[in-house]
Description:
alpha+beta; Alpha-Beta Plaits; 4 strands
Amino acid sequence: xxxxxxxxxxxxxxxxxxxxxxxxxxxxxxxxxxxxxxxxxxxxxxxxxxxxxxxxxxxxxxxxxxxxxxxxxxxxxxxxxxxxxxxxxxxxxxxxxxxxxxx
Length: 103
C-alpha cells in the first residue's frame, strides 16, 4: 500500500536559498529510487523559513530504503546546521475504510 511522507524543516533565517538547493538535490536523487511515485516541496507563506516536502512511495519498504540511503544520509547531515530545530517526519497510509469504532 502506498504511503505519503511529510517532512517539515524550519530553516535559519538567511539560509533559505541554500537549503532549497539542497532539497532540490535530494529530490533529484529520490526520483531515481525504486518505489518513488511523486513529490512536492512547499514553503509557508506565513513563515518563509518553514519548508514542507511531501512524497508518495509505493509502499513503506521503499520509503524505509530511501531513509537509509547513503546519499540521503549525507545530505541530511549537510542540511542539519542550517535548521532551527530537528526535522519532523511523518509517514501516512491511505485510509481505505474508516469506522468510528476503530480499524
